[in-house]
Structure formats: structure tokens, C-alpha cells
Amino acid sequence: MYSDIIAALPIVFSPAMLLIVAAGAVLGTLLGATPGVSATLSIALLVPVTFTMDPTMALVFLGGVYCGAIYGASISAILINVPGTPSAVATMLDGYPLTKQGKAGTALGAAVTGSFIGGQVGVIVLLFGAPLVAALALRVGSQEFFWIVIFAMTSVGALGAGSVLKGLISAALGLSLGVVGSHPVTGALRFTGGSTALYEGIPIVVALVGLFSISQVLQLVIEPRGDRGVKITSVGSLWPGAAAALRYKVTAARSAILGTFIGTLPGAGADIASFIGYNEAKRASREPQKFGKGSVEGVFASETANNGVVGGSLIPMMTLGIPGNAVTAALLGGLLIHGLIPGPRLFEASSDILYPFILSLFLANLAFLIFAFTGLRYLARVVLTPNSILAPAIVVLTMMGAFTFRGSTTDLWIALAMGVFGFILTLGRFPLPPVVLGIILGPLAEKNIARAAQIASARDVPLLSYFLSSPISVVFIILTILSIVITVRREIAWRRSGTGGYDGFDNAG
User: Fold this and answer.
1) How many CB atoms lie within 10 A of CB 155?
2) Helix axes 142-159, 471-497, angle to 10 degrees
3) Which residues have CB under 8 Å from 346's CB, separation 6+?
4) What are the two backbone dihedrals, phi and then psi, of residue 354, each rounded to the nearest 5 degrees?
């Protein structure tokens, strides 16, 4: 591992890579700061841009976009009380009150410093933890992997919305879409409608840009934003907020560790991490009464936690092929189109690509930090982009991306259909991320259960007995049951209390 890291350093610090990671981080920050353009949508829109890049450069670029977009969402939350993603809602609770007090720069400084610290801690864990997880995952066979996938889907479905039922329905719909195409073992065609474009299933990139981009455009059309009458003249100095890192060292450590750990859990994204980081900071603070009224510590805690998720969420995606959240599901599409198959052998087969990618995330965090302190006064204007400009731009980029993937006009119709489908789901408050994860994980579940069934048949034992013969399978069967039971009980408690469920896993990531 250490030799791979040393070999990756010259690649990462080459002029071309430095330029591409900076470009990704800046673009991600700009897109993340634009209301209506989430981190997931940012990745989905820019994956087609990487088609002509080599795999290393493509991953470095998308990694920069990921880091920048998660941070950028805090800018609109602080300045105009509109979170770029749900992960910035906790930041908004204290960020906007600080803006109303004339301390926008202080809030923005705390946000970018916390994002930088959380991001770097997450990447450190990713750098040294992912190879260890990959080594353990080599012991996982078809029977174990099937139950790992099922556990991931139940976790995502349970965390998908205020309603467990809606989350699980979304996951089931995704799994259904995932079986479109040929059977992985028999080759039989299912639900293709005679279209050769669907023989290999629904293209993940096309599904991503359709579900998130087109559905988002339709939401922008029915919910015009205008400029809200907000006038941003100056954000002020960021340095007072940056000094929060010195005052709240314990908060920084706690939030970064929480965010990174939560990021490794399937379905538990940056939105959940930011609220947990915020709540724990409030509980431990010497001045809890200031939270919600303009607490710099509150902004710092939530942003440190949500950027810690970036490194943590990449661990299950790269080592098991299971995206931890919607953003890594989009990023997984980027890996697949460049011929990189996530899984335990990825670090063996493509270490020359993965280690430069991981190390570049350190530089991506540094890039948005520098950009914030040098160009934020100009970036503040991005949050006021009117829907009349934003919606057409998204449509053009979406259609270009869908067509460029395979050069097929059928993909345009698939993207449009997926977008309308996603829009209908959002109207019913059904979360979209479980749908995407179902499309990705469905074929994995089907392939592994088919293999497990063949092995069980060859050994002349029932499939259930074969599953129960593996301790790893038994562990994940128990975790799957516990995941469903605990979440159902939690929702019942919420409904009895009259507070309703927490809408923790947004439609856009």
C-alpha cells in the first residue's frame, strides 16, 4: 500500500492533474451553491464530460466535484436561507441568522474551514481503511454478497424518507428496473419491449441524468424562484469564522469522526451526518442557548460532519461496489463507464488509478478552501441564478450527456422517461436515491443469488441451508432484520409523538 501511495504522488502533483482537480472542485462549489443543483445532480451532469478522459483523470475530476459540491451547498444556505442540499439544512439553522446579523463572512469562514477539516479526516480514513476492507471483502462469496446487498437496500429504503414504506417502495421500484434486460445466467430477456437498447439493462448514466436532472427541471418549472429580492453586496471577511477551528477543536474532532463513520453506512448520507454532528455539538456546548440563533459552533459542527462523509462513503462503494448514498451512486456510474468494476479486487487490479484518485481528494479540499478565501465575493452571486436560465441549461446538459454515452437517440427517450418517472415520485414524496441504488444493486443481487442457487443445487442442499452455512451470511441476515425492525419501531414512535419522520434522504442527494 505504501509503495502505491509513493508511486501515486508524482501523478497527483503533475500540472495536468493539479489543474483538473482544481477545476472539479471549483465547478462542484459553483454547482453546489446553486439552489436546485445538488451534489448528486452535479456528478450526474458532469459524468459525460469525462467520456474522453483517461480513467485516472476522470476520477480525479469527479472527486473534486464531489468535494466542492458538498461544501458549496452551505453558501446558499448561509446567504439566502436556501440549502443547496439537505445536508446544508443544519448549517442554515445558524448560518442565516448570522447573515441577518451582518456576519455572513464569519458563517462562511466557519463553513469552509469545517468542510476542509472534515473532508481531510474522511480522506485519511479512506486512504488507510479502504484497502483493509477490500482485503477482508476478498473472503466474501456469492451467498454472503447477496445478503450484503439486501442489507444495503433495506438500510437505504428505511432511511429514504419520513415514511419507511415509501423508502422501501422506492427501493423495490429500483430493484424492478434493475432486472430489465438479459438474465445474468440464462440470458433470457425481460421487459425490454423489443428494444435492443435495453438488452444490457437501463444504462446507469442515462438513468442518473434522467431521474435527477429532468425531474429537477420539472420541479424548477412548477416552483419558480425569481431572485427573492435578496441583495448581496458584501459577505465580509471569512477569517473570524475560520478561527473557529482553534476555538472548537473538540467539536471538529467529534464531528469529523462522526461524519466519516456515518458515511460508511449504506443510506446514511451527509444530511444525516450534519444533523447528528450539529445535535452532538449543541449537547456538548457550553453555550447551547445560542444554537439556532447564530452560533458559529453550530455552523462549524454541521459542515465538518457532512464533509467527513465524502471519504467514508467511498469505502463501501470502492471495496464492495455498494454506493453508500446517492452521490456515490452517481460516482459509481463514472467508474463503470471507464471500465472500473468496484469490488474487493479493485485495489489489486487498478491501484495505479485508485491511489492517485484518493490522494487528489486532499487537493480537492484544499482547492475549494483557497477558492473560498479568494473568490467567494463573486461566487455569492451564483445563488441568485434565476430558474429561467438554470432550467434550460440543465436540460441541454442532460440531453447531451444522455446522447453522448452511447450515441443512441433511444437513450434520450429513456432519460426523459426516467425524469418524468422521478418527478411523479417526488410529487408523492417518494425518495429517488433508493431507486438509483436499486437499479445498480438489483443486478448484483440477482447475479449472486443465481450463483448461490447453482452452488446449493450442486451440493444438493436447500438454498436457505446454504445461506445459513456461512457465518457472514447469518450476520447480514440478522442485520437486515434488525434494520427493518428498528426503523419501523422508530417510525411508529415518531407517529405516536405526532412529530413525523425525519426526511433525511433527499431526492437529489
Assistant:
1) 25
2) 10
3) 134, 318, 319, 340, 354
4) -70, -45
For residue 93, give the C-alpha cell: 439553522
Sequence-ordered list of residues with C-beta below 8 angstroms from that of 211, at least 6 positions apart, any chain: 418, 419, 421, 422, 432, 435, 436
Contacts of 406-410 with CB under 8 Å at 24 or more apart are 406/197, 406/203, 408/197, 410/195, 410/197
> 286-306 in b/e burial notation, b at 16+ Cβ within 10 A?
eeeebbeebbbbbbbbbbbbb
pLDDT per residue, tens digit, the chain (509 aa), is: 788 889 999 999 999 999 999 999 999 998 888 766 778 888 888 888 888 899 999 999 999 999 999 898 888 788 877 665 667 778 888 988 898 888 888 999 999 999 999 999 999 999 998 888 777 666 777 888 788 778 767 765 444 445 667 777 888 888 888 888 887 777 788 888 777 778 878 877 688 778 877 887 887 777 655 444 445 556 667 888 888 888 899 999 999 998 898 788 765 566 668 877 888 898 888 888 888 888 999 999 999 998 998 888 888 888 877 776 778 877 887 888 888 888 777 887 888 898 999 999 999 999 999 998 887 767 666 666 677 776 787 788 778 767 766 777 888 888 899 889 989 988 888 877 678 777 877 787 888 888 888 888 888 889 888 888 888 889 889 988 887 787 677 667 767 765 444 343 344 44
Helices in 407-503 by DSSP H: which ranges?
Answer: 409-427, 433-458, 463-468, 471-497
Spatial CA neighbour of 402 closest among 3, 37, 11, 51: 51
Per-domain residue ranges of the chain: 2-497
The grid coordinates listed for 290 are 445560542
Sign of CA dihedral 56, 62, 65, 67: negative
Nearest to 342 by CA among 322, 313, 312, 360: 322
Give the whole-angstrom CA distance, residue 509 versus residue 505: 7
CA–CA distances in Å: residue 155 to residues 72, 159, 168 = 27, 6, 9
The SS3 assignment for 400 reads: helix
Query: Please, what is the Cα angle at 101 between 99 and 105, to 5 degrees?
Result: 45
DSSP 8-class letter at 190: E
Nearest C-alpha neighbor of 241 from the set 122, 45, 150, 373? 373
Alpha carbons within 13 A on the beta-carbon side of 191: 9
Bridge partners for 182 per DSSP: 189
Residue length of the chain? 509
Distance CA 335, CA 329 (A): 10
Q: Cβ distance 431 to 506 under 8 Å?
A: yes
Contact 41, 82 (CB under 8 A): no
Residues facing residue 189 across a β-bridge:
182
